[in-house]
């Protein structure tokens, strides 16, 4: 019996850990979807009077949740944190997002630095 417990306990802990990660991921995706749906029906308005911007923000947060991030955080903020830590994907993503923001606004900008939210992101399932 002792041998069974010695071998079964680590397996049980691993299964429970994976179940917890799945539950957290499903919870985050659910919140991200809620932000997107509320933005589409006009009930999520971090920027009052700017429907398109609110929908883009809801979509951004939903996509970040799908990628394993915190549903309250945008991809730009998550990329800025990864770039600050020296992660390659963060540098590439920030370069791309800066290029897109420059094309849309017509002025050179560091979109990730402007979008950085240092107090948000602790609920990420996949750490940066």
Number of helices: 5
How are helices and strands ordered from N to C? Answer: HHHHH
Helix percent band = 55-70%
Low-confidence stretches: none
The counted number of beta strands is 0
Count of the separate structural domains: 1
Average pLDDT works out at 87
Mass-distribution shape: flat
Question: What's the alpha carbon Rg, rounded to whole Å?
Answer: 19 Å
User: What structural class should be given to the helix and strand makeup?
Assistant: mainly alpha
Largest β-sheet summary? none
Instruction: Give the CA-CA distance, first to last residue.
Output: 42 Å
What amount of the residues lies in strands? under 5%
Task: Give the helices and strands, then pairings.
Elements: H1 2-40, H2 51-66, H3 75-84, H4 88-105, H5 111-115
Notable features of this structure?
mainly alpha; 128 residues; single chain
How would you characterize this protein structure?
The chain is an all-alpha fold and 128 residues long. It contains 5 helices and no strands. The chain has helices spanning 2-40, 51-66, 75-84, 88-105, 111-115. Helix 1 (2-40) runs antiparallel to helix 2 and helix 3 (75-84) crosses helix 4 (88-105). It starts with a helix and ends in a 13-residue tail after the last helix. The relative contact order is 0.12.
């Amino acid at each position: 019996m002792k041998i069974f417990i010695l071998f079964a306990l680590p397996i049980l802990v691993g299964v429970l850990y994976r179940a917890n990660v799945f539950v957290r991921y499903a919870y985050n995706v659910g919140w991200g979807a809620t932000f997107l749906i509320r933005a589409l029906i006009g009930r999520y308005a971090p920027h009052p009077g700017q429907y398109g911007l609110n929908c883009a923000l809801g979509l951004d947060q939903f996509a970040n949740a799908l990628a394993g991030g915190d549903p309250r955080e945008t991809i730009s903020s998550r990329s800025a944190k990864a770039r600050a830590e020296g992660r390659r994907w963060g540098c590439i993503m920030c370069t791309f997002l800066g290029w897109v923001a420059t094309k849309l606004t017509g002025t050179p900008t560091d979109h990730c630095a402007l979008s950085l939210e240092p107090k948000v992101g602790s609920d990420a399932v996949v750490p940066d």
